Amino acid sequence: MATKTTQEPEHTLGTALPDAVRLDEVSKIYGRGEGAVIALDRVTAGLRSGGFTAVMGPSGSGKSTFLHCAAGLDAPTSGSVQLGGADIGALSEAKRTALRRERVGFVFQAFNLLPSLNVEQNISLPLRLAGRRPDRTWSREVIERVGLESRLKHRPAQLSGGQQQRVAIARALLTRPEVVFADEPTGALDTRTSGDILSLLRHIVDAFGQTVVMVTHDPLAAAYADRVLYLADGVVVAVDEAPTADIVAERMTHLGA
User: Fold this and answer.
1) Does the pLDDT value for residue 43 go beyond 60?
2) Which of 135, 149, 180, 238 has the fewest CB neighbours in a 10 Å radius?
3) CA–CA separation, 3 and 80 (whole Å)
């Protein structure tokens, strides 16, 4: 995909915030014996509540595994992951599933919308699966914030890629999650649409106090965050506060080398 040329946002880093998610000495090993692969190697990191954290690293650095462990999609081999006082790694698969459904939101590169449902139905699907009714006031506010008021009866095939990603963001927000995890959320979008989606993620942090954690390969995308964690070979090797695209690009060049 071509390098994005979206104008960098302007934002300032506030005072230190408590951690929404905390990883302590987290390791994740796939396989056994000589064929074992260490995807994360004793990682300790905090993801700040009410902040926007980007996670970056070269291919194979462990950033996707980091997200999966932090979000409860996978259990660490050792160490602990704390989300709102719950040790995710110590939970059964059933309890991890419940925690993800009730306390975590997800936005993926592929949108993951159901083609047979309209926008309104796709947004409310997680609550319906949990047997809960949407809060109409909150639902209306979320839909207005993401700019989908005129698209509620449309199906995904009738939407642009950016509009589909807005549906995915609204769906992630509707449950009022403690954290929204975004995995390459602009990877399938063009330059202008990518900027719109990144501005929207920035907006929900600033307007709602929402915690957002985004895995990305794009320095311009990372510049929307308050903070960037860099991984290499399964280890957090650097952190930048109030990043700019130039700082991130230079850091990534050195990591790639």
Assistant:
1) yes
2) 149
3) 36
* Dist CA 245 CA 56 (whole Å): 12
Start-to-end C-alpha separation, the chain: 21
Pick from 199, 197, 220, 165: which is nearest to 6 by CA? 220
Domain 47-74+94-256, CATH class in plain words = alpha beta
CA distance linking residue 162 with residue 250, whole number of Å: 29
Q: How far apart are CA 209 and CA 26, in angstroms?
A: 27
**Mean pLDDT value across the chain:** 90
Q: What are the residue boundaries of the structural domains of the chain, listed by start?
A: 47-74+94-256
The phi, psi pair for 28, rounded to 5°, reads -135, 120
pTM of the model: 0.88
Q: Which residues pair with 47 in a beta bridge?
A: 21
Which pair of structure tokens corresponds to residue 158? 């009738």
| pLDDT confidence band for 102 (50 / 70 / 90) | confident
| Cα angle 11, 235, 181; round to 5 | 45
Between CA 118 and CA 226 the distance in angstroms is 34
